[in-house]
Every structure is written in C-alpha cells, then in structure tokens.
Amino acid sequence: MLTPELNCSFLGMNLTNPLVLASGILGTSPSLMERMALSGAAAITSKSCGPEARAGHPNPVTVAWDCGVLNAIGLTNPGARAEVPLLRETKQRLAALGVPLFASIFAPRLEDYGEVARIIAEAEPDLIEVNISCPNVASEFGTPFSASAESAAAVTRTVRKAVNLPISIKLAPNVPEISLIAQAVVEEGADAITAINTMPAMLIDATAAKPVLSNRTGGLSGPALKPIALRCVYEIAQAVSVPIIGTGGLSSGIDAAEMLMAGATLVGIGSVVINDGPSVFSRICTELATFMKDNGYAQLGDVRGKALT
Amino acid sequence: MNPVGLFSAFRVQQKRTENAYTCSLVLNDSLPDALPGQFVMAWLPGIDERPFSLSDNDPVRITVADVGSFSHALNQLQPGDYLWLRGPLGRGFISRGRSHLLLGGGYGAAPLSFLAKSLCAQGNQVGVCLGARSRADLLLVEEFSSLGCQVWLATEDGSAGKQGLLTALLPEAQNALKPETVYACGPIGMLTTMAAWARTAGLPAQLSFEGVMRCGVGLCGSCELPETTCQQLGLAPGFLVCHDGPVGEISPNHFS
Questions:
Q1: What's the pLDDT tens digit per position in A130-159?
Q2: Per the domain annotation, does A88 fall within a domain?
Q3: Is A240 part of any domain?
Q4: What is the number of structural domains in chain A?
Q5: Beta-carbon separation of B5 and A63 below 8 A
Q6: B47 interface with A at CB cutoff 8 Å
Q7: Cys-Cys link to A168, which of A50, A192, B131, B208 (CB 3.0-4.6 A)?
C-alpha cells in the first residue's frame, strides 16, 4: 500500500496534515509560531487576545503530573491593538510556509467581542477562533459564555456581524448537553467548532494544605482530558455538519486517529508539547501515517467519523 | 505526563550566609538526575514561585540574593521550614573536553559551583573567573578554591582582583588554562561579550540565560529570548529559556 495521505481541506484551506497548534500553547510571538509551523504544525492558533492588555495570574500558573497538566495562566495578552502587528508579522511568515493562522480572541463582556474581532480582523488571519470557554477568569468575568446555548449563541451573533472571516467557536466540556450549544452557535453562523477547552479542576498540595495554583482552580489538559474530549466531539459531530477542530489531551498519532474517528476534521495539539517540545508535530504525523498504513486507510477522509457509524 | 511537574516539599536543613545580602538554603534531599545548569521552580504558598538554578544537588542547594519580596521571604526561612520545588527543569551544561573555563558574573556564580563540583569530581581541569561590583558582592569564592579550581577575580571598583569587567580576565585565564570549552552565567551583556570572545578564540561556549519564567515547562512562551539576541548569538529563533535552555550551546562556527 502507498504511504497514506495526511493532507486535508478545512473551510477551503489546504493543509498538509490535520494537526493544529492549540490556542494558549506558545502562540505568543511571530518567532515562536513560525517555529511551530516549521516543526510540522499545519495550522497555528495564536494565544487568546482580548480588548486590553492582561498580565495574567501570579505564579504558580502551571503544574504537570502523571495524568496531565493543570494551568491558570489567566489570559496573558498584549491587548487587541498591540496584537495586530504581531499577528500581521506572523501571518506573513506562516503564509510563506503555506500554514494558515487562526487568531484566538476573548472578551470579558458580550459587547466587547465584536470590537475585538473587528480589530483582530485587520491582521487578516485565516480564521478567528472565539474563546468563550476559558475556565480561569470566572472570578473576574463571571460565568463563561460557553455555559449556556443562549449566551454562546449571543457571542457568535456578535462576532458574525462584526467580521466576514471564517469563525470557529471554542466550547467548554463542563456543560450538560454540548450538542445543544454546538447547534445554537452553528445556527448563528459559526463556520466551525473547536472542542474542547480545558476542564475546570484543582490540585491541592497536602504539605502546604493549599491549592497549588495561585488562581486556586485551573484548566485540566493532557491525557486525563482525552476521553472527555472524544465524547464531546462525538456528540457534536452527530448534531452539526460544520467541521470540528477536535482538541483535548491528544498525545500520539493513535490519539489523533481516535479524534478523527469521533468526527473531527482537524486535531488540536497542545499540552503534549511539554514532553516533546515543538518536534511533537512530526512525531504525531509519523505515528498517524503508520497507523493508517497498518490499518488500510489511504486518506484522512477514510478515518474521519469512522466511530460514528 | 511529567514526573517533575509537581511540587515536592523539602525542608531547609541549613542556612549559610554567602555575603551581606545572599544566603544559600541547603535542603534535606537531592533531586534525582539533576544536572548542573538545570533549574527548579521554588514555591512559597501564598507568596510566589520563582526559578532558581541549583548551586548544588548533594543535597539540593539554592543560593538566593535578597533583592525582592520573594527572595526576601526565602531569606527569612529557618532550618526545619518547608520549601516546595518542582524540577529539575530545562537543559543544563554538558561537559565537553578535559579543561574548562567558567565565568560567573554576580549571582551567576551559583549554578557554576554545581558545575565546577561535578567537573572536578571527574578529574577535569577547571578555572573560574568571578566578577562583581566590589569584594563584598563576590559569591562562593572560597568554595571554588576549595574544590581545586584556579580562580581569577574582577571587581568594578578594584577592591578585589583586577579592576574592571569580568570579561577582561578572559585572555589571562585562557593562557593559563588552555580551555576546550567555556561556560558562563550572568547578565546578558556579559554573555554576549563572552560569546564574541569565544568565537574569536575558536572555542565552543555554553551560556546560561535568564528568562521571565511562568509555566517553566515550555507551554506559555513567556521566557522566549528576544529574536535579536538569538540572531546575534546564532541560536535558532524562538529559543525558550525553560525548554531549550537555560543553557544554550553556541558553536564558534555558528556565531554571527
């Protein structure tokens, strides 16, 4: 059998493989995003950007243990205006490599989402990913917009009106029926869905008798999140027909295949960077191609949605 | 996923005064497989978490200058108190050759003491150049001497050793030692000067960088070295101090 094809199409973009650098992982500068693209990421998501500059939470902001990573960085970003030149520079560097740029945005209030999207659109990213689900700012921003179909739909409507670029809405896992939220955002014009964000969680240090993170709670990612992400994507894929960027705890080519089988079109890669560094992308691609070859899959389309039937 | 990513609680076993504003905290255990040049994230619950290079690992020792609120809190710790560490993190120094020249500017002496101990234990020839503002600011001079290193000193006010910058000691140390590799830790200006000198001398250099450390494990991007620094030193752009460093290796052929 010939070497399996990993190239794929997503909202009219042609990607060399299905792996996307997930938001919040090293998407902070043109040089780092270019480095991730050179390392094999077929699309790059920048770190979420909001209306104003934010320093984020004090340390400790990240810990890792056997089953995953817990983080509460706190949406550190330079503010939308300052982000535009960085994204322009990034877009230019990535375009030379044939790698699309997905720009992640967030806002504390519903009415700010449109303005942030309009400003970020000046950098002409290939897609705007709308982060409505960061679990680490509830003490400042209130309940995330991802918590209900109504509020998720309202953000989608606001961003849809503000920009003509493709938009993907990033959903949270900690809701009773994620498929209803997916349907609501698609009805308001979402071109894609990114699922899932991290899961709210906590680690306590017994000798310190205190939560480990300064924010007390954080977002759980890494291997512990994978089964939750697979379930969410599986349910969303049955409810809507837009493409899904399946993200959450994937750390191998077989994990990527499982996410594609759950119905994802693209596969987000994030916390596993902790183990491998940027070289993780080429490893996962090689493992995915090997899996496909060993199991008689010639192209990604043959794998996609396989577990749904 | 990452066994070094969680905090372990250590107890302070001994507190050693290094100079008027710097102490070393000797802890009650070692970190498995820690290498000279690697760092730990030290945490005091409710106060802060900051990176420190190991100044020894038999047992763990960190050397802390009292220059801010967190380092002040560390300086207040007493024997028996807890200190939480995650690590060892990052890439450390790699011994290359048999004759080694170490350059420590200010607090930069701390990780070099662990390196010197390790190199001397393997029977290598080790020379150390230490520099500071004045005699009172020098760190760990006696420790390097007692390890058997040849030591050169420079102070800006001339109160100990040669008057001037640490890098002015390089030609003399090179003549005496004929090093095969140079290792440096200190302010970025000192590192770039040293790298330029090493290139002229045709020597490989290992530089230990500082960065704004948040996650410490290569996810958040906050410790990236400026792209101009990478270009100047011949490092690949996007160098993460926590993941690619803190020690960056610079070949004399790649320096531009």
A1: 999 988 888 888 889 999 999 999 999 999
A2: yes
A3: yes
A4: 1
A5: yes
A6: no
A7: A192
Q: Which of A278, A135, A274 is nearest to A196 (CA)?
A: A135
DSSP count for chain B of H helices, then E strands: 6, 14
Q: Does residue A129 contact residue A102 with C-beta atoms inside 8 Å?
A: yes
In which element (H, E) is residue A72 found?
A: none
Could A76 and B9 be called an inter-chain contact, meaning their C-beta atoms sit closer than 8 Å? no
For an interface test with B, the pick among A207, A226, A272, A279 (most B C-beta atoms closer than 10 Å) comes out as A207
Contact A47 B221 (CB under 8 A): yes
The minimum CA-CA distance between A187 and chain B, rounded to whole Å, is 34
Q: End-to-end CA distance of chain B, in Å? A: 38
For B6-53, the pLDDT digits (tens) are 999 999 999 999 999 999 999 999 999 999 999 999 999 999 999 999
CATH number at residue A158: 3.20.20.70
Question: Distances in Å between the alpha carbon of A7 and those of A4, A14, A71, A242, A294?
Answer: 9, 7, 32, 19, 18
Subunit contact A223:B1, Cβ cutoff 8 A: yes
Rounded to 5°, angle at Cα A70 from A69 and A73 = 120
Which of A150, A206, A160, A214 is CA-nearest to residue A180?
A: A150
Q: B222 to chain A: which residues are within 8 Å by CB?
A: 28, 76
Which CATH superfamily, name and number, covers B8-89? Translation factors (2.40.30.10)
Cβ atoms of residues A263 and A236 within 8 Å: yes
* A285 is annotated as an active-site residue: no
CA–CA dist A134, A124 (Å, integer): 24
**Candidates 3.90.1310.10, 3.40.50.80, 2.40.10.10, 3.30.420.40; correct CATH number of B99-250?**
3.40.50.80
Domain range for A115 is: 8-51+75-200+221-308
Residue range(s) occupied by CATH 3.40.50.80 in chain B: 99-250
ipTM of the shown complex: 0.94
